[in-house]
Structure formats: C-alpha cells, structure tokens
Amino acid sequence: MKFFLIVILMFSPLVLFSQEDLLDLIDTLNTPQSEYTYATFKSTRIISSHSIETMKEGQLEFRVAHRFGRLNSGVDNFWGLDQSTTCLSLEYGLTDDIEIGLSRTPNEKTISGFTKLKILSQKSGASSFPLSIGYMGSIGVNSSKWNYPDRTDYFSSRLHFVNQLLFAKKINEDLSIQLSPTHVHYNLVKTALDDNNIFACGLGARYKLNSRISFNIEYFYVIRPEWNIKDNYKNPLSIGFDIETGGHVFQLMLSNSQGMIEKHYITDNTDSWSDGGIHFGFNISRVFTLY
Amino acid sequence: MKVLLYILIIFGISANLFSAERFISKNGHIWFYSKTPLEVIEAHNNQVASVIDPAKNAIAFNVIIKSFKFERALMEEHFNENYMESEKFPKSTFSGQFVGFDPANFKKDGKYNVSIEGNLTIHGVTKKIKQNGTIEVKGNQIIAKSKFNIKPEDYGIAIPALVRDKIAANMEINVDITYTLSN
Fold first, then answer.
1. Domains of chain B
2. ipTM
C-alpha cells in the first residue's frame, strides 16, 4: 500500500502539470517595465483650457474652435448661433514633450503664441510616478484698432502673458483629473485700481463613457478683490463631450464663457449660467503627421 | 524491496526534473501589418515571452499589448485606447500543442514544418486556432517562425465604419522567436 502511494506521489507532478502552468510560468518571464500613461486627455484641450496632452514629435494639429452667442439671446439671433466666433490655431510637436502653437481669436483680434512642456510624465510599472506635470506659457497681442484715445498706443500695452502649471492624473482607465494654477498678466489694465496680475486655479476632469466618447468638465476659480467681483466678472464653468473618430477629435460644449484663450475665458468673462448667459460651442481638431 | 523503492524514487525525481527542461524566450519578436490602399499600419513587439515544453509537446506565448511599438504615436494611442483596450486586457496569450510532431525532434538539429493547435486569447476573447509554422533546432536553440492572419472582429474588436477603409479586414501576424534551452 505504502509502495503504491509513493509511486503515485512520484508521478503526480507530471499529472498535475497542466498547460495552464505553462502560461503561469511564462508570466514570470515578462521583464517588468515602466509604462508611460497615455491619453490622460483625448485632446490638447480639456474644453477651453490646455490639457496635459501635447502633440507628439512631428505632429501638426489644426484646430478650429467655435463659440456662439448667448443661448438667451432669443429667436432673433437663433439662440446665439448667429454670433459665431472662430479661433484658428496650429500646434506642433517639436519633441514628444514640447509643443508650440499659434492662434488667432476674434476677441480683441488677439494673436497669441504659446509653448507647452511636459516636464514629468505619469508612469507605472518598474519605476512609477503618480502624476504628470506640465507648463504652458503664452504671449498674446491685441491687434485690434486702438480704442483708448486717452492712452498712448505702445506695442507693449497690447500684450498680455499667461503662465499655467498643469498637474494631471489619470486615476484609472475612465477617469482623469487636472489641476491648473494659472497666472494672467495684463500689461495694460482698464483702470488704475485693476491689478495687472490675476491668479486663478482650474479644475478639469474627463470621464470616459465608452472607447470613443468622454464627458468633460472644467471650472476656473478666479481670485479677485471683492469690488472687482461686483463688476460682474464670473468664473467660467464648461461641460462638454469629446467624440473621437480616428484622426479627428470633436469637442462639443456648453459654457458661460465665450472666450477661447486664457485671458478671455478665464479672467475677462462676464456671462453667468444663472441668467442664461450660456454659450454653445465646439472644437474640431485634425492631426497631421508631418514626419 | 526498500532498495527498489529508493531507486524508483530517485528515478522518478530525475524524470520530473528532466520534464522541467524547457526552451524559453523573453524577447521574441511578433509584428503585424494591416495593409489597405489608404494606409499601411505596422507594429512591432520585441518583448514576447514564450516557452516550448518538449516533454509535453506544448508551446505558450505571452504578449504584452502595450509593448507594440508603432511608427506614429497617435496610432499607438488609438491601438491601446480604442481597439485593444490594453488597460482592461493588458496581454494576449496563446497556449497550445504541436500536432503530429515527434518531440524527439527537439533534440535533433534540423528544420521542421509544424502545426500548432491551441487557444488564442486577444482582447479578452479566446478562440481555438490551428496555424502552421517552422521550427529550426540548432543545438540548444530553437528558432520558431510563423505567419498567419486574424480578423479583429473575431476577437470583439470593433472598427467604426469611418475608418473601416483604413484598417485591413485581415491582420497579417508574423512570429519570429529564438528560444534557448533552460533547465
């Protein structure tokens, strides 16, 4: 009896060793690697503000952004669709982590250039890092006809600057969030009381509804003195959807802000959700691979 | 009686050890093509883990989806995010048997045409497949090669009508793996 038991035990490893074990064994062969997180956001914008994403090396993005008039402007203006504004921009990836861009927006006929850097990237695996950190800096020139008759039209008076830090984290496959501390500097302000520097902090998120559509939300809290808030400046809140179709990303949104660059939609906004000052808009992004 | 027992035990242990002799590879090469008049898509994975177990005449593959490298970054992102959903299904596996192949050949140098049957799992969907290839035995090394087609739709990978013309109905999969003997 004992003999048979031993014989059975002896051969049992052969019997137990099924094919699944081969797959288990193989699991241990894959060398651990660190993987950079991809697609924290689907586009270079969350809605109106910059996301952590940049164009990869050699990619050129052509963006067309539209914001329409106020929804409460009535049937005469077709609920705002008659008052369309268009921002065109070209954005290009110098390397996988450095993007430059040029845009023109109808508000104050502003031409602006920006640089976006991805400083640290979120990654997992062998060596991991919990979030991505980036910086966006832009300079804008007001190219409209000078409308301050009592002031000298210096070129420098037409400039404004934006510094923005981007802290983004893809929490899981579906949810990504971003924090964007923002500084806007006006070379020329409306009144002597206005501050040249305005600070704001943006919070953005993306939630994937399926592999091609995501729901996005974006809000900026703008730090202002009390009297300034009474001038009807409002914090911008936007909600929208990203719809991806191969090389295009369509972004549809509703926002209380009509601007399309930081100065206009964050710090110059006066419309509010509560009184129907809501704007419909969309962004179309087309990416070309140059090399 | 007792001596016989010990002999049997020793023999049994060594037989078990012998069965653990396998050919393994950690950096096998698998690549695929999708060819249409509009676009050629090509991606390479040089980190494929694979094992051949001569004792059981079996073979297995483990392919990390994110290790597929594309020429264009955007393609790679779409591949991972929209098609393979590599966060949800991080790897693709195959586990199968050599069909009608004498395992003794694993010890004899030469080139053999082989047929492999087993379960291929891609995108969380498992299908039984049978494909042909060649293996070349050179001492302690085996070089395995194969080329076959698979349809993304068979594995629940949806391709939207808008890009249907840019992605081939049949993906050409190429396998080239050099195994070395390990005990």
1. 22-182 (2.40.128.110)
2. 0.73
Residue of A nearest to B79 (CA): A246
Radius of gyration of chain B (CA): 20
A22, A245, A289 ranked by CB distance to B160: nearest: A245
Closest among A37, A44, A96 to B66, alpha carbons compared: A37
Query: What is the span of the domain harbouring residue A252?
Result: 46-289
CATH at residue A210: 2.40.160.40
Beta bridge partners of A183: A163, A199
Is the pTM above the cut of 0.90?
no
Structure tokens at A282: 């969309």
The answer to whether position A15 is within a domain reads no
A-B Cβ pairs (cutoff 8 Å, strict):
102
User: Strand pairing partners for A87?
Assistant: A65
Measuring CA to CA, how many Å separate B38 from each of A130, A135, A217?
39, 37, 36
**Are A29 and B60 an interchain contact pair (Cβ–Cβ within 8 Å)?**
no
Cα–Cα distances in Å, from A211 out to A35, A39, A134, B78?
20, 11, 25, 10
- The alpha carbon of B62 is separated from its chain's Cα centroid by a whole number of angstroms, namely 7
A27 contacts: CB under 8 Å, gap ≥ 6: B49, B62
Mapped onto helix, strand or coil, the DSSP state of residue A290 is coil
Residue type, B119: N
Q: What is the pLDDT along chain B (183 residues), one digit of tens a residue?
A: 677 666 666 555 555 444 568 899 999 999 999 999 888 999 999 999 999 999 889 999 999 999 999 988 888 988 998 899 988 899 999 999 999 899 899 989 999 999 999 999 999 999 999 999 999 999 899 999 999 999 999 999 988 888 888 899 999 999 999 999 987
Query: Taking CB atoms and an 8 Å limit, are A245 and B47 in contact across chains?
Result: no
b/e sequence A167-181, b meaning 16+ C-beta within 10 Å = ebbbeeeeebbbebe
Residues in chain B within 8 Å Cβ distance of A30: 26, 47, 49, 62, 64
Which residues are within 8 A (CB) of A227 and not within 5 positions of it... i.e. 6 or more apart?
A193
Q: How far apart are CA A247 and CA A174, in angstroms?
A: 21
Q: Which residues of A touch B88 (CB under 8 A)?
A: 173
Taking the C-alpha atoms of residue B84 and residue A173, their distance in angstroms, rounded to an integer, is 13
